[in-house]
From TrEMBL:
It comes from the Eukaryota. This is CRAL-TRIO domain-containing protein. It comes from Ovis ammon polii. Signal peptide: none annotated. Residues 8-19 have a biased composition (Polar residues).
Amino acid sequence: MSEESDSLRTSPSAASLSENELPPPSAPAGYVCSLTEDLVAKAREELQEKPEWRLRDVQALRDMVRKECPNLSTSLEDAFLLRFLRARKFDYDRALQLLVNYHSCRRSWPEVFNNLRPSALKEVLASGFLTVLPHTDPRGCHVLCLRPDRWIPSNYPITENIRAIYLTLEKLIQSEETQVNGIVILADYKGVSLSKASHFGPFIAKKVIGILQDGFPIRIKAVHVVNEPRIFKGIFAIIKPFLKEKIANRFFLHGSDLNSLHTNLPRNILPREYGGTAGELDITAWNAVLLASEEDFVREFCQPGPPCDSILGQALPPEGLSSEAPCDDSMRAVKSQLYSCY
């Protein structure tokens, strides 16, 4: 471990939390690490996570929440706080900001986060818009498969798709393996038309990307786009200005070249639809996992929350999470960008 990495635990805002001054780490949920030895080593190397300091670091973040954000209505359990520490490589200040952003995002977009539970999204799940492949990639990343062509806009608004994505991410991040390994996104844009793409305007794009980059404790290791039509150039033109350079560099456009995809995602983990050998794409298994988690989501997302001001007052929402309606988010403005691709 480098001196720079160790210094993350003694940043100015946490300087007073020295080893001798900290109270004994508490474990209200009886945290027990489920990581394998290999993943413990990976977390140490990539995330600056020291097993011998883990509970001390969690206690430090817990104390910062109580001191700096006393009105933040959040879980302080070890397992929950660890998600944010891992996502920000155990930098206390950045982990705290991510935690505040996480709650700010949820309060600032009620159309997405209110009543967020699997049973409320059965139509989206049954459509096959998204699923998680049964096998992880060679790095241990779960593969989230998105198929926008399965969405029929006349059936329900695009925010229902976003709700389903967030629901899936919440379920995935419960796993410590996912917290360490991250996820990969496989997006199939086959058959996406101009009219359908128009629903994903700058306002929604900015909000979604703001959540994924700055408001959710998950590591997106790669985004593989296949079967993208020319219209995708317009979609990506809408998205790219809001992407951080690191994330933008993790986008890979394969077109219809499945051999290119297979250099990143091996055939043995992919369904036949993508030139793989893992059988037909099955959405039922992941849908069952989500629907079996109904009670967990009801407890987390379907209870009365504190007033928005008590949370949003802690910090400004991530860029793009303002609730103000944008002046340029009209269908005409979006279509003009997309038509330029032809």
